[in-house]
Amino acid sequence: MTERKFRVYSRREIEGLIADGRTIFILDQYVVKADFWRPYHPGGDKAILHMVGRDATDEVTALHSAEAKEQMYRYRIGRIEGRWTNFIPPIQGGKFRPLADDDNDDVENDSEECENSSGPATRDPSPVFDNADSAMRKRHTAGGPVSSTSSVSSVEPDDDGMSYLDTITKEKTTLDLEKYPSLDFTTQDAIVVKYRDLGERVKAEGLYQCNYGAYAIEFMRWSFLFSLTFLFLNWGWYVPSAICLGAFWHQLVFAAHDAGHMGITHGFHTDTVIGIIIADFFGGLSLGWWKRNHNVHHIVTNAPEHDPDIEHMPFMAVSHRFFQSMRSTYYDRVMEYDAVAKFTLRIQPYTYYILLLFGRLNLYRLSWDYLIMGRGPTKGPAWWHRWLELTGQVVFWTWYGYFVLYKSIPTNWGRFVFFMISHMVPMPVHAQICLSHFAMSTSDLGPHESFPQKMLRTTMDIDCPQWLDFFHGGLQFQVIHHLFPRIPRHNLRRTQKLVQEFCDEVGIPYALYGFVDGNKRVVGTLAEVSRQAAILAKCQKVISESDDPIHGHHH
User: 193-209 pLDDT, tens per residue?
Assistant: First the structure.
């Protein structure tokens, strides 16, 4: 059977398709049109939208099985020749011109012009996250590879304080550009080639094969903690029972994470059912919500406008860019820098660990929003997942809410204490997740940075002895996990050496810190943002007390 022949699309033609509202990305030199199956994508549509106009080969390969990738090939409409130059996706504020605007200009020349005009430093202000003030400041921005989403400019003493803070962003971006390999195509292409070679080596060494013996040990640990929960509950030892239940949830989260990435059996439906049983039936959390959230996090890691894992306004901010009341492309709402945020961000270094104690309560809220509002796919292969998850929620709140809290504990105060302790004990999971990213770069280096370099720039690993791996659950190897999300966590330590060799070869720093040092860096980042909030408040106070609200001059 002869292979289907595909027409060759120019970059300008693809830009025109995207301008007409088509969901187009590049996969293995093929042009993929994802409009039909985007609403049915089990991982949510947001992840796809962040790939529009980009070469998504490495992201797709990292996050999907070979079978899923083959399914995507069904939606190929053409191919490209030569190296693809990424656009900024529409969801991130990229501008695209319909083909009708060419007015008989040469398509290829126009394509070259588009490459320049769509560059991250020269595009128009984004309707997604740029406000009028940042647009005004942006007119003073020097050219360079820094994305306009950073809203950087030179310091102007008569400004409203944001220019000073934006200058800090520019300095951080400059440090990143000096610390990491050049963004020129030759350098980034070489990194991609070596990353793909590393992927083949990982596969050849069997690191994608699950260690089911390790899961047998995990299962015994879960069973032991769950049994102790009900044994102590039966004896009336409510505090030890709550501690054991919290520890049980703490350990289960790691397995749900594995299943969500298809890292157990590598079968989509099998791992999904395993994940739903663990997350929904035993933990009260939605696996579907997690997939939708987590896939976006893996693609736009540490991007303040786009990554939901660092969007915690009004309680926490890891960048001063949150002071601009930017719009979250994930939550489709403005993250207001209001009076509450101005107060809470000033004290965030002190409230950080306290907030983490209640992290699980926020996950309930996000899970219920996802399931009740029907934000997951309603058709396609995952249409029934929501109904299984809703069943799981009923089962969870029946055994936990009714039988454990209401029937087994005689007093309301005892129920409250049990509830709070059982939900506070899993706090280390939330600390580990934040630890991996909060102290790392939030700079936007533009659309031409390669996937592996971005993952290494925005993620850190935690150095710990092997006997403590059960406590961290693989989350201490977030760098390796972000590069190869589907590797079973029990193989991440073996993969670490290969990734370190790769980093040495391509010249990308590998961030590895001890648990204490990593936490110090996170708290230090929060403290730095807190100080920046104080500086902004002082600047704005001076402006408000002056006669001229724009320049602060007395006449």
Answer: 999 999 999 999 999 99
